[in-house]
Amino acid sequence: MIRGGDIAKGTCLLQKGQPFIVVEREFVNPGKGGAFARVKMKSLRDGSVLTQTIPTQLEVEDAQVDTHSCQ
């Protein structure tokens, strides 16, 4: 599990049962209410893009993705 405040570009997350990689993230700290991260993610399966607003204290599931270089 990873907290919303610890999400960085390149992090792999599980959303809706699919692995996503974070393409963009922006932290917003409004004058009223708690801070949150606005995250743009790309699906590793079909390439669809998902934009979500995640509170910094909320824990989301990180995906275990193995990468290796090919020739």
TrEMBL record:
It comes from the Bacteria. The keyword Metal-binding does not apply. SUPFAM superfamilies: Translation proteins SH3-like domain (SSF50104). The keyword Protein biosynthesis applies. Pfam families: EFP_N. InterPro entries: Rib_uL2_dom2, Transl_elong_fac_P/YeiP, Transl_elong_KOW-like, Translation_prot_SH3-like_sf. Residues 5-54 form the Translation elongation factor KOW-like domain. Keywords: Elongation factor, Protein biosynthesis. It comes from Gracilinema caldarium. One of its GO terms (molecular function) is translation elongation factor activity. GO terms for cellular component: cytoplasm. This is Elongation factor P.
